[in-house]
Specification:
Elements (H helix, E strand, L loop, with lengths): L1 E3 L5 E8 L5 E7 L1 H22 L4 E6 L2 E5 L1 H6 L5 H5 L10 H15 L7 E7 L5 E13 L2 E10 L1 H19 L5 E3 L5 E4 L1 H7 L3
Antiparallel strand pairs: 1-2, 2-3, 4-5, 4-8, 6-7, 7-8, 9-10
Length: 203
């Protein structure tokens, strides 16, 4: 039994019967433990309040099984609610198929104590099958008294699409049958595609 004295100290009491029919009582002062647990509870409550209202997706998982997900993560992955994400049997299902094997290897390496990236970009799949790109930041936290992995998720799909458009444009310019030259305001050439060098003789 656990009870609190008038002084404010917390005591844990236990009794054990002896072979001769008597009792041995043991009382332990657990005030420091109780205070630490209360501080942890308050800290987790404050933390939960922050992530529930975050503009980033947030996921806490243990061995790839979700223990917490915020509503922003559900919106990002086009699920109806965070509870729907938490019902998934494996968080790997949020990743694009080609990303799952590398992620399993990284998680195994982390469990074995190897140094692995704490931030990375990865392709993911939404509930409707569409693909998005996210940046994930990982850290180990204490959640409900246990060590868990927390992941902060930021949607970078727009940036990835812009980068891909830029690559396509660069390839088109490089392969263009028309000469292309870019100069600064003073007429100094900053870029010329292969066709321009072929026609002009400049290199």
């Amino acid at each position: 039994a656990i009870f609190r004295l008038a002084s404010g100290r917390w005591i844990q009491s236990a009794e054990q019967r002896t072979p001769d029919g008597g009792y041995i009582g043991v009382r332990t002062d657990i005030t420091e433990l109780q205070v630490a647990q209360e501080e942890l509870r308050v800290s987790e409550a404050n933390f939960r309040g922050l992530i529930e209202n975050s503009l980033h997706g947030f996921l806490i998982h243990d061995n790839r099984r979700a223990r917490y997900a915020n509503e922003e993560l559900a919106r990002m992955f086009k699920y109806d609610s965070a509870a729907e994400i938490m019902a998934l049997p494996d968080m790997m299902l949020l990743l694009a198929p080609e990303e799952r094997a590398p992620m399993r290897e990284m998680l195994a390496a982390r469990r074995s104590g190897e140094l692995v990236p704490v931030e990375y970009e990865v392709a993911c799949v939404c509930k409707d099958g569409s693909v998005i790109w996210v940046r994930s930041s990982i850290q180990v936290i204490t959640w409900e008294g246990e060590q868990m992995v927390s992941t902060t998720v930021t949607d970078i799909t727009a940036r990835k699409q812009a980068e891909e458009s830029q690559r396509k444009l660069s390839r088109a310019v490089e392969q263009s049958p028309v000469s292309v030259v870019i100069t600064d305001v003073h007429g100094t050439i900053e870029y010329a595609n292969p066709k321009f060098t072929e026609i002009s003789g400049y290199s």
